[in-house]
Task: structure prediction
Amino acid sequence: MYQCLCNTCKEDRMVDGIEEAQEYFNEHAGRGCEVEIVKADVADDQLTAEPTAPTASGSDAQSADEAASAEDTQPSDE
Result:
């Protein structure tokens, strides 16, 4: 099963085989539509996937080089 999505025509259709999905894609792409085909099990996985945790950004983020140079500038206890 494949999910055929045409964002231009606002269509969403499920088809059984890749040949039918390819035909749908070619028809819509030939008209200049923004169209995509998604394998049904992949589409299901995307719908049920849990959101990922946000990553640090901005002033909270520190590159490996910044972390290493910060360690080099620390006074030693010797």
